[in-house]
């Protein structure tokens, strides 16, 4: 079985009294920005790098108390693959720079819930929102 490891970021910003979540449109679903990493990589550093290098965000703030791991398997060309995705919550002050605007966007919790089709990602969104509600109040 082939193993993959990804670091992912749940980017959030506050606009007035509303939280907005930054989503990326993959081939056939909406989700959070992510990148494949090596097993020896320090995940927190990789999360910051994803935001600073890929999206040119200055000073992203990773919430140290929020770290969630999703593990699932799938088949790729008939071979089984086990994927681990480690998610960090990232507060942004500046917006990410993106080339293909139709593949990215800021969404309210309700809009993000509607766009995200996979239950595990929707549940992750809910946990991130609950964490933010508890820490921002």
What does this structure look like?
The chain is an alpha+beta fold. It has a single domain (2-136), classed as Alpha-Beta Complex (Nucleoside Triphosphate Pyrophosphohydrolase). 27% of the residues lie in helices and 44% in strands. It has 3 helices and 7 strands, in the order ββββαβββαα. The protein has helices spanning 43-54, 109-115, 119-136; strands at 2-15, 18-25, 30-31, 34-36, 61-76, 79-91, 104-107. Strands 1, 2, 3, 4, 5, 6 and 7 form a 7-stranded mixed β-sheet that branches. A hairpin with a 2-residue loop joins β5 (61-76) and β6 (79-91). The longest helix has 18 residues, at 119-136. The chain is globular and about 50 Å long.
Largest sheet: 7 strands, mixed
Q: What is the molecular shape?
A: globular
Oligomerization? single chain
The domain tally reads 1
CATH topology: Nucleoside Triphosphate Pyrophosphohydrolase
CATH superfamily: Nucleoside Triphosphate Pyrophosphohydrolase
**Mean model confidence by pLDDT:** 90
Helix content: 25-40%
The N- to C-terminal Cα distance equals 45 Å
Give the SSE order as H and E letters: EEEEHEEEHH
Q: Please mark out the parts with pLDDT under 50 across 5 or more consecutive residues, or reply none.
A: none
Name the CATH architecture. Answer: Alpha-Beta Complex
Provide the structure class.
alpha+beta
């Amino acid at each position: 079985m082939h193993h993959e490891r990804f670091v992912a970021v749940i980017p959030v910003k506050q606009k007035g009294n509303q939280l907005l979540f930054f989503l990326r449109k993959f081939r056939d679903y909406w989700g959070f920005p992510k990148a494949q990493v090596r097993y020896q990589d320090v995940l927190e550093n990789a999360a910051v790098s994803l935001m600073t290098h890929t999206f040119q965000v200055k000073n992203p703030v990773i919430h140290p108390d929020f770290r969630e791991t999703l593990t699932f398997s799938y088949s790729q060309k008939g071979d089984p693959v086990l994927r681990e995705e480690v998610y960090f919550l990232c507060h942004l002050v500046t917006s990410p720079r993106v080339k293909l605007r139709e593949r990215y966007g800021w969404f309210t919790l309700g809009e993000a819930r509607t766009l995200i089709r996979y239950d595990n990602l929707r549940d992750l969104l809910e946990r991130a929102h609950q964490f933010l509600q508890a820490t921002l109040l």
